[in-house]
Every structure is written in structure tokens, then in C-alpha cells.
């Protein structure tokens, strides 16, 4: 054999080896980067194949009230039954072959049809045998509070969420308008075409300017950076770079410190405070509150944002009062409020408390997860006191209860629609917070104090009775 | 230093077979059909006996047959799981295949005039090709099968092997040695022969096979041509032909379009490949487990797409294992060539190794959407009589070439 021949043979072998190695690399790449997306393609018949054979797990609220379940109907077809037409349309969502999956039905699909990622020895039998029953999911939701929340929001547009500020358990979450999950076949066209987007879960997917509720962040940032002005004189408006920033209705608050400015929600004070602090300082505090950060949540959650790129002076001043380019979800504002209620510790919110096998064995439970600490106790305590006073004597008076101290902050957010969004965030009892609440009324055209605070009051009163 | 000897490897193969067969038993428990027992005992006996016989009979390369045993075990277990009746029939084919292997091997070893029948090889190839064109059956849009006495048979599979012999005759200098005029224009004549084959395959819409023919030709030509410019002409011509084919033939264009974006045509021309990708995605690294996936959703899951079906249930790691097995197989094939002193047998070994290597790459690359999909069987794994029997015949030649030594004496490596 000549040398040339030997060399060329070796080259051809190398090419063959190279081709095989490409196959291996591509397969690995495919599995790591593409497979997950491809699996979710609605044309993947496997997504539905299991469902025809497996009895999908049920949903329960925290008191073991059943909310959704599956039964074997006529012709041995497995049917999904949602016990409440509207109430859980954004939380549990739906799972239908024709319309796909939404809500927890989507995120917890594999648990509901009985696939768990972990293989333990007890599951080996399930793997081999033909168990045909999915896992049940227990929510942190309290059915009564959920119902009350929906009642209070009925006829309006917006969102209400309540949560335990110390544990992150969500007691209720409603978004209006909602839709009837048991009647999608007849209403689908209307739902899709409705300009108010009933499918949108405003609690987690809606992005709004936070308005004055953001002053919680600005105030904490001022305290942390020793940048409070004790002797500010409010004239009802200031001019920053030629733009005028007004107080609500041009009200003149006179000589105010941080506390008074917060309680009366004085815009000019916080606009000045924000200019004094500068972009970086506010951004830092906002990010401590998980702005611009991804949060793993049981439902798809939009990221709330505080601008990171350069701001003009006007924008910076507007940011201090929750206007400008800041956008938040109601859930984010609830997290901000809960962090204050929880002495600075921001907990991860969740909707699912545990997953049970059909026999009732606990497969997975959620524990409290602290995401971050937003500030030291003294600073946070001052914010707590200001929030208590805002309800006692300030803009949040409509949320006041006779026997229970409520802490809160109102917000009235200007937006392009011309009708202001009304906000109220708060918690109670202030001494030992058991519930935190956010009320957002989209394009309500009224102040948060007048329209959102009374709703929060009713809800807090009802919930605390229920929870005790 | 040898960490694993032949017997260890063989025992590992048995362990694999026993484990996967027990999974099938467990999965069907307690409804075990008598066929399942036949299949299990039949497969284990087949592999064991044939390995023992080969070890006694051949002093050549023992590993290529062992690798093939592993591949065919994975294949038949998957086929049986998809459709037990097909599994039993595949077992019959494997028996026939392995008998063909031994016959081919013995015949190849003791008959020494293989390089003297260039014209005969050529004639048989053309006869088989034209009989397919005239008497062929059209399935899935391509013309590949002919029917002989109730048995359908795919001539192009057999021609692949004869093709290797044709090239071996030419490049070992035996084909035109009697005629110096032909010998002078050897490259041009070869080009004409090969491209006539490729053209016929194109007309039959057997794109996969035409690429395999081309690759075997290009590989052997590259190694043995006196003048590399012919290889370059060849590559240019084939590329040009590919472009022309793209514009002239709808079926070429369709394969290309579905490769670029199958999702857009998921209901129609993209259906097969997307179903294949769903299966692979579902399998993940470890697979769903035998019996727990849904390979029945993949069209032709026991045939062209068996690789995807295997990945769904046995995982990408098994898929990678299979690719490695083919890689080792091809490597051993070339190693046989490097040890062989006769040029004719060297070319046979190289040709057969290329045949398996390229065919494997094209079909695996196709079903995982690395390259456009063209229909081919996965050697030794896919279901199908012609494919199994011709693959074993080719293996028989390779086994023979591994010890063929005209100067007497043989080696065991």
C-alpha cells in the first residue's frame, strides 16, 4: 500500500468520524435548546394522548373545597369539570383540546397527569403498572376570600390580590373582566375579540404605572441614603426642565417633611426627593424590591421594570412619584407592600401549597422562601408608621377600620387613556400583619383614595374575620 | 492493553438483551403471548449460536459482527414493541440474514476470482435497475420495489453492494486491463457509469440511495484516483446536479423546503419530520422507558424513523450509543482495509464501510433534521427483509475481507 493511499484512507475515516460526531453534537444541542419548546407545540399529539387515558388531578382550595375535577362521562370520555364558571378563570384557567391550556392547568400539566420528575422507589410501581390517575393540587387560595374579592371588583376593570405577607401564600387573585371557562365553545369569539381582553390576567400580566404607591420605594430610598428634606415647602407644583409636575388638583401642602409628604402624597416633595437621590440610588432600591428581576411564579408573570438607561431630569422626577417609564404588575406592588409589612423581608408569592398523589400522599410542598431583604428594620419601621398614618389621617382614610389598624398607600396613576388608574396597597393588622392587599382599578378615572381604598377596607375586614 | 476482551463484550450484549426483553415482559404482564417467548428465546439463541460459530470459523475481525448483533437487538426489540407481528417477522428476516451472512462469508473466502467479473456486475446492475423501472411498484411516491413470486424486493439495496464490486474492479485496475484505450479513459467511463446509476435512482425518486452511491464513489475515487482533479470535477458536477434537481424536480424542492421550515407545513409535507422531532423531544436524555412512549405516532416508526422511536423510549443517550456503534463499526471496516494486502479487497472493505457509514449518517441526520430527509433504512435496525438480508450479505463480504489473505496465513485482530 502506498503512503498516499494510506493517508487518504485515514482522511476518509476522519471525515466519517467527524460526521458521526456532528450527529451527536446536534442531538445534544437539540435536546438542550429546542426540545422543550417543540414538546409544547399544540400539534404534538402526545400532549393530549395521555389525557384520554388519565384522570386529570383535581384542584382544591386551602380548606379542601374542590374547585375543579375530572370525571368519566358518556362513552368513557374523560370530562373536565370546573365547579365555578368565572371565579377561577385566571388562576386555574382551563384545559380543553380545542382551546389549549391556560393558568395552572398549563403550568402544572405534568403533575396533573401524573408525571413527576423525581423517581422515587414508591413510584416505580406506577411506572410499570398502568396507574391512570393524576395528582391533585391544593392551592393557597381561600375560596371565600376569592369570592369576596370578585364581588368587590364586579363591574369594574382591574385586579385584586390578597396574600399573607409573611409566607407568600396568595389568598385571592382576581382580574376583571374574566370569562366563563365552562362556556368557551359559545363565547370564544367574543372573548378573543373583546377589546378589554378578558383572557389577560391583569394581576400578573397587566403592566401599569404605579403612581403614588411607588412613593413607598422612593421614601425608603431617601431614608436609606439619608436624603430626607425636613423643611420642604410645597407650592402645589414644581417645574423641572420646563415641564410642570403638579400635586393632585394643584393642592398646596405647605411646609412638609417626608412623613407629611407621604401621608398627604405630596408629588412635588417626592419629585424633588427623586432628583436629590439620583437615578442610581432609586434604581438600586427598586431592584431590591425585585424590579427588573425575574420571579419564578406559578403563573406566567411579566417583569416589572424601572428604567435602567439614562433618564432626563423630568423623567427622573416623574419616577419618584411612580410615573414616567416605570411599569408594574399588581403582584409586584403587593410584594413591595408585603416586604414592608414583613419588616423588610420580601417573600416569594405562590398559589400552589402542595401536590398530592391520588391516594393523598404528599408529593411536594411549598415552604416560605425569602427572596431578599429590602432594608434595615429602622428604615422599614418608619415606612410602616407612615403607611399607618396615611390610612389614619391621610389619603387612605377610606380604608380605615374601627377595631383594626390598617396601613396603606394610595395611588392615582395618570396614563395615556386620560382616565387615571386607581391604586391602593396595604396590610392589616398593622401590629401583626396577617393580610396584604392590592387593589388596582384600571382607567377608573378617580383617585385611589376614593375608589380603591374602600374596596380594600371591605376586603380586609372580611378576610381577617375569615382567617381568624 | 485490552480492558475488555471479546467474551466480556458478548456477555454485556446478553445482559442488554435480557434486560430489555424483561422490560417487554413486565410491560405486557400478565398477558404474555407465546410469540413474545419465541421472540426472546429466538433472539438470544440466534445471537449466541452465531457468535460461537463465527468465533470458531473466522480468524478475522470478531467485533464487527458483535456490533451488528447489538444493533439488530436494539432494532428488533423496538420493532416488537411497536408491532409484535412485525417483530416476529423481523426475527425471521434476521435468521435469513445471518444465514446469508455465513454463506456469503464462506463463498467469498473460498472463491478467488471476484475481481474477474466486471462486465457481469455491470450487466446485473443495469438489469436490476431497468426491471425496477419497468416492473416496479410505486410506494410513497418512489419507485423502489419489484415483486418476485409474491415477495417484494428492493433491487437498489442489492445494487449498492454490486456497485462496490464494480468500483473495486475499476480502481484495482482489473476492469479495463485488457483494453488500453478504455484504461486511458478509465475515470471518464467510471463517471459515466456512476452517473447513469444516479440518474436512474433520481428518476425512481430514490434520493437517499443516489447520495449513498455518490458518496461511495467519491470516497473511493478520492483514495485511488491518479489525478485528484477528477474528484473535484465529480464534486462540482454533483453539486451542480443537485441544484438542477432542485429546480427541475418537485420532490427535491419539497424535501429542501420541509427541512428549512417543517413547522409551517406541519399538516402536510412537514408531517413526518415534525412527528419525528416530537418523539425525540419527548424522549429526552433517558427516554420514557420501553413501552411508555408513543412511537406509534411517528409514521414509518419501524422503518425509516426507527431512530426517533428508539430515542423516544430509550433516550438520546441510547441514540448516541447507536451512533458510536456505527462509528466503531465503520472504523473497524477501514482498519480491515488498512490490514488487507490485496488492493481489490481493500476497496471492497472501504466501499462497504462507506456504504454503512454514509447511509447511517443520511438517515439519522434526516430524522433529527440536521440535513434534509431522504428515505433510507437504518442498517441492521430498521424493519425490512431486503435491507436486513443485503446488509448481512455486505457484512459477510467485510468479514471475509478481514481475513482474506492470498499469501497464506491469517491474522486475528
Low-confidence stretches of chain B: 406-413
Chain oligomer state: heterodimer
Radius of gyration of chain A: 27 Å
Percent strand of chain A equals 15-25%
DSSP, total strands of chain A: 19
In short:
Chain A contains 16 helices and 19 strands. With 468 residues, chain A is of the alpha+beta class.
Question: Can you put this structure into words, describing what you see?
Answer:
The complex is a heterodimer of chains A (468) and B (413). In chain A, 37% of the residues lie in helices and 19% in strands. Chain A is α+β, with helices and mostly antiparallel strands. Chain A starts with a helix and ends with a helix. With 413 residues, chain B is mostly helical. Chain B has 2 domains: 274 residues, no CATH class; 135 residues, no CATH class. Helices cover 70% and strands 3% of the residues of chain B. In chain B, α14 runs antiparallel to α15. Classes of the chains: A alpha+beta (468), B mainly alpha (413).
What features would you highlight for this structure?
heterodimer, A: about 475 residues, alpha+beta, Beta-lactamase, 6-stranded mixed sheet, 5-stranded antiparallel sheet, about 20% strand, B: about 425 residues, mainly alpha, 2 domains, 3-stranded antiparallel sheet, globular, disordered C terminus
Q: What are the SSEs and their pairings?
A:
The complex is a heterodimer of chains A (468) and B (413).
Chain A: H1 3-39, H2 46-49, E1 59-60, E2 66-72, E3 78-82, E4 94-96, E5 100-102, H3 103-107, H4 109-112, H5 121-128, E6 136-139, H6 143-153, E7 158-163, E8 170-176, H7 184-193, H8 202-205, H9 215-224, E9 232-234, E10 237-240, E11 243-246, E12 254-256, H10 258-263, H11 267-277, H12 279-288, H13 313-319, H14 330-341, E13 345-347, E14 352-356, E15 362-365, E16 370-373, H15 377-392, E17 407-413, E18 421-428, E19 435-441, H16 448-467
Parallel strand pairs in A: 1-6
Antiparallel strand pairs in A: 1-2, 2-3, 4-5, 6-14, 7-8, 7-19, 9-12, 10-11, 13-16, 14-15, 17-18, 18-19
Chain B: H1 6-28, H2 34-57, H3 63-82, H4 84-110, H5 118-135, E1 137-139, E2 142-148, E3 151-153, H6 155-171, H7 180-184, H8 186-203, H9 207-224, H10 229-248, H11 250-260, H12 271-283, H13 306-339, H14 343-367, H15 385-401
Antiparallel strand pairs in B: 1-2, 2-3
Amino acid at each position: 500500500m502506498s503512503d498516499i493511499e494510506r493517508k487518504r484512507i485515514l482522511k476518509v475515516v476522519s471525515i466519517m468520524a467527524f460526521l458521526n460526531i456532528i450527529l451527536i453534537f446536534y442531538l445534544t444541542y437539540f435536546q438542550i435548546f429546542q426540545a422543550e419548546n417543540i414538546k409544547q407545540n399544540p400539534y404534538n399529539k402526545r400532549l393530549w394522548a395521555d389525557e384520554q387515558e388519565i384522570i386529570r388531578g383535581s384542584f382544591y382550595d386551602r380548606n379542601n373545597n374542590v374547585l375543579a375535577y375530572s370525571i368519566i362521562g358518556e362513552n368513557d370520555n374523560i370530562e373536565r369539570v370546573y365547579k365555578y364558571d368565572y371565579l377561577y378563570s385566571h388562576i386555574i384557567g382551563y384545559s380543553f383540546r380545542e382551546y389549549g391550556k391556560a393558568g395552572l392547568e398549563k403550568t402544572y400539566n405534568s403533575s396533573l397527569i401524573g408525571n413527576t420528575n423525581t423517581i422515587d422507589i414508591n413510584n416505580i410501581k406506577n411506572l410499570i403498572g398502568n396507574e391512570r390517575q393524576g395528582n391533585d393540587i391544593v392551592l393557597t387560595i381561600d375560596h371565600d376570600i376569592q369570592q369576596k374579592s370578585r364581588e368587590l371588583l364586579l363591574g369594574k376593570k382591574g385586579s385584586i390580590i390578597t396574600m399573607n405577607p409573611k409566607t407568600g401564600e396568595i389568598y385571592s387573585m382576581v382580574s376583571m373582566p374574566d370569562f366563563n371557562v365552562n362556556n368557551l365553545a359559545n363565547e370564544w369569539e367574543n372573548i378573543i375579540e373583546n377589546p378589554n381582553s378578558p383572557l389577560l390576567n391583569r394581576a400578573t400580566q397587566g403592566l401599569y404605572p404605579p403612581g403614588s404607591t411607588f412613593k413607598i420605594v422612593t421614601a425608603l430610598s431617601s431614608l436609606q441614603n439619608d436624603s430626607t428634606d425636613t423643611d420642604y415647602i410645597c407650592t402645589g407644583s414644581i417645574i423641572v426642565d420646563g415641564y410642570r409636575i403638579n400635586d393632585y388638583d394643584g393642592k398646596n401642602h405647605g411646609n412638609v417633611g417626608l412623613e407629611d409628604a407621604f401621608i398627604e402624597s405630596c408629588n412635588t416633595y417626592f419629585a424633588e426627593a427623586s432628583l436629590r437621590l439620583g437615578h442610581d440610588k432609586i434604581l438600586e432600591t427598586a431592584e431590591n424590591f425585585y424590579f427588573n428581576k425575574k420571579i419564578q411564579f406559578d403563573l406566567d408573570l411579566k417583569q416589572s421594570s424601572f428604567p435602567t438607561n439614562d433618564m432626563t431630569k423630568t423623567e427622573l422626577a416623574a419616577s419618584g412619584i411612580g410615573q414616567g417609564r416605570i411599569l408594574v404588575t399588581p403582584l409586584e406592588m403587593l410584594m413591595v407592600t408585603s416586604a414592608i409589612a414583613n419588616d423588610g423581608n420580601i417573600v416569594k408569592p405562590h398559589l400552589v401549597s402542595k401536590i398530592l398523589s391520588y391516594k393523598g400522599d404528599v408529593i411536594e410542598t411549598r415552604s416560605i422562601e425569602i427572596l431578599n431583604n429590602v432594608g434595615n428594620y429602622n428604615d422599614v419601621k418608619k415606612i410602616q408608621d407612615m403607611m399607618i398614618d396615611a390610612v389614619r389621617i391621610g389619603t387612605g382614610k377610606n380604608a380605615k377600620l374601627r377595631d383594626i389598624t390598617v396601613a396603606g398607600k394610595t395611588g392615582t396613576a395618570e396614563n395615556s387613556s386620560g382616565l387615571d388608574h386607581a391604586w391602593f396597597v396595604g396590610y392589616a393588622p398593622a401590629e401583626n400583619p396577617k393580610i396584604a392587599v392590592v387593589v388596582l382599578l384600571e382607567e377608573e378615572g378617580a383617585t385611589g383614595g376614593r375608589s380603591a381604598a374602600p374596596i380594600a377596607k371591605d376586603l380586609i375586614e372580611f378576610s381577617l374575620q375569615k382567617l381568624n | 492493553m485490552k480492558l475488555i476482551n471479546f467474551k466480556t463484550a458478548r456477555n454485556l450484549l446478553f445482559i442488554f438483551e435480557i434486560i430489555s426483553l424483561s422490560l417487554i415482559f413486565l410491560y405486557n404482564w400478565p398477558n404474555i403471548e407465546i410469540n413474545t417467548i419465541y421472540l426472546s428465546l429466538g433472539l438470544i439463541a440466534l445471537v449466541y449460536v452465531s457468535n460461537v460459530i463465527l468465533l470458531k470459523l473466522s480468524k478475522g475481525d470478531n467485533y464487527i459482527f458483535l456490533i451488528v448483533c447489538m444493533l439488530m437487538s436494539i432494532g428488533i426489540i423496538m420493532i416488537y414493541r411497536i408491532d409484535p407481528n412485525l417483530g416476529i417477522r423481523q426475527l425471521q428476516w434476521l435468521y435469513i440474514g445471518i444465514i446469508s451472512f455465513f454463506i456469503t462469508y464462506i463463498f467469498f473466502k473460498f472463491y478467488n476470482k471476484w475481481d474477474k467479473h466486471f462486465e457481469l456486475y455491470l450487466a446485473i446492475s443495469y438489469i436490476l435497475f431497468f426491471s425496477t423501472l419497468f416492473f416496479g411498484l410505486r410506494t410513497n411516491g418512489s419507485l423502489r420495489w419489484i415483486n418476485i413470486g409474491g415477495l417484494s424486493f428492493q433491487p437498489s439495496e442489492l445494487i449498492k453492494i454490486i456497485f462496490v464490486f464494480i468500483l473495486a474492479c475499476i480502481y484495482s485496475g482489473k476492469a479495463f486491463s485488457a483494453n488500453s484505450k478504455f484504461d486511458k479513459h478509465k475515470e471518464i467511463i467510471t463517471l459515466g457509469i456512476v452517473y447513469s446509476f444516479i440518474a436512474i435512482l433520481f428518476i425512481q425518486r430514490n434520493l437517499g440511495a443516489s447520495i449513498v452511491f455518490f458518496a461511495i464513489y467519491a470516497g473511493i475515487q478520492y483514495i485511488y484516483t491518479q489525478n485528484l482533479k477528477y474528484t473535484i470535477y465529480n464534486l462540482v458536477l454533483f453539486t451542480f446536479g443537485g441544484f438542477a434537481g432542485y429546480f427541475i424536480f418537485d420532490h427535491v424542492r419539497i424535501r429542501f423546503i420541509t427541512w428549512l421550515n417543517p413547522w409551517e407545513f406541519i399538516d402536510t409535507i412537514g408531517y413526518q419530520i415534525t412527528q419525528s422531532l416530537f418523539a425525540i423531544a419527548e424522549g429526552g436524555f433517558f427516554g420514557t422507558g420501553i413501552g411508555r412512549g408513543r412511537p406509534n405516532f411517528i409514521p414509518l416508526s419501524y422503518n425509516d424513523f426507527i431512530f426517533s422511536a428508539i430515542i423516544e423510549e430509550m433516550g438520546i443517550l441510547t441514540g448516541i450509543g447507536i451512533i458510536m456503534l456505527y462509528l466503531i463499526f465503520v472504523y473497524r471496516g477501514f482498519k480491515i482495509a488498512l490490514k488487507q494486502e490485496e488492493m481489490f479487497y481493500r476497496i471492497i472493505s472501504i466501499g462497504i464501510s462507506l456504504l454503512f457509514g454514509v447511509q447511517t449518517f443520511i438517515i439519522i441526520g434526516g430524522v433529527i433534521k440536521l440535513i434534509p430527509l431522504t428515505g433510507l433504512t437504518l442498517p441492521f435496525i430498521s424493519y425490512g427483509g431486503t435491507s436486513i438480508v443485503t446488509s448481512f450479505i455486505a457484512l459477510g463480504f467485510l468479514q471475509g475481507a478481514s481475513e482474506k489473505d492470498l499469501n497464506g496465513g491469517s491474522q486475528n485482530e
